[in-house]
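ARCHIVE CARD
Drawer: 12
Card no.: 0347
Subject: one protein chain, sequence and derived structure
Cross-reference: see card 0346
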Amino acid sequence: MIRSLFRSALAASSTAIALAVVVPTAPVTAQSAAQAPYEDSLSAAEARADIAALYDTMQAEHVDLFARRTRAEYDAKIGEIAARIDGPIARSAFHRMVQEALAFGRVGHAKSDAPFLDVMTHVQEGGTIIPLSVTYRGEAMLTDQWASEGDAMPPGSRVMRLDGLTLAEFERRARKLVSADTDRLPRAQIELGLPAYLFLVFGPRDTLEIEFIAPDGRQESRAIPARGFGEMYALQAARPVPNASRHASMRAFEDVGGGVFYIKPGPFFATEEERGEGGETYAIEPYRAFVREAFAALADSAAKDLVIDLRGNPGGDASFSDLVVGRVADRPFAQSSRYELRAGPNTKAAWAQREPKGDGLGARIADALARAEPGERIAIEVPEAPPIADNAFSGRVFVLVDRHSYSNAAVVAAMMQDLGLATIMGEETADLATTYGATETFTLPASGVKVIYPKAFMVRPSGSLAVRGVVPDFAIQPNPVGAAEDRMLDTALTQIRLTR
């Protein structure tokens, strides 16, 4: 369970967490200190040089580093971070410092995954973390899959304090660890990997005190002990909690009856099983075969309505999603009404090594970058994708989304909404419809930290610049904690049948 949480968090478009060391609110015991993985350090000079290189390179490469912070604010922040480096600094602490600088910009795709990888290394080397699984319902953080043995902290308990911090105080600290454009996105990220956030905020702990209100109304406090991977698996097996979630990588289709067909396309990239020995995420043929099979089954059914389920979808590449959208579109379509690109030196060098084929977006980007001056911001005309006649569907289309519909999944939902191709149902996505994305990477010279940055600004087809996710046409509450049935899908199916 925890492994899937970390993997999901790292796959999500806006996941990246880090901050300069947050001093634990209670002393770290000798046992806790022994849990911390061995790590070397950077000299003060190396750390300061990398912070300076980070800021300089981001200004040159990020499509708009100052989109949500002024230059003066960023200058002050970088200066404040550099001033805190007064001697050798452990690499994990420096990793959090880099992410603090990136998260300050409040752009989800400007990030480093190094702090999360540090937590993974800690656990893989035998360290422990606090096994607290949660989900949000409105403003409430509720316990979900596991936290403690038996009924000590039942599923659906509302968390009030974490180690003495109110939930709002904890979220403010965690917010500094998350690259996110809005305040909605950090909560979605906390859901995906709270144990890692607890580790990064509080440091290695033997226990963490949790104050909560149980579903029956009683108020209690429990010290939750830290655990390793094996112990957490055993804990989950000992207290399974029913849930209706479908794995994010699952691809499925079925005739659900009543004239409705259901397709869950899964991620818009090749899954681990589909990549084969080469490990290429662009291995599209297995996905192409799945889509053909799904729409052939749809054509053979009596269905007049189609549900495309993008809940929990981490996104991916338009060449994958276009295979689905093209079969429900009656005219050429484009994901963006505006696409602007920064021709940074690193971006130009990376694309000079690529040879995209055809006249698609990749080919146009490569040509524009080759012609542009370093640092120039240029506009790209987004090519339209054609409809696909093979088993095309002409009935009503409904797209299910939730706060974990990320990246290209959110973009696809926004496009289908704006172009009138589908009715959007579910809950508002945490990821944005108009966004800074199309990421590239560079590496800091002394620390070797890999930095991810957005090279492009992409505006949804409607032209809206609103800084928010895809807002459903028909809102549906997420499934209650402990519900085995998929109530969100059931509600959607009921609504679809009632509106014929």
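Annotation on reverse: Residues 340 and 379 are 4 Å apart (CA to CA). Residues 1-38 have pLDDT under 50 and may be disordered.
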